[in-house]
Amino acid sequence: MRPLSTALGAVMIVVGAIWTFQGLGYLEGSPMTDQTLWAILGPILAGFGVGVIVVAARRRE
Question: Where does the sequence pass through the membrane (predicted)?
Answer without folding.
Answer: 7-25, 37-57
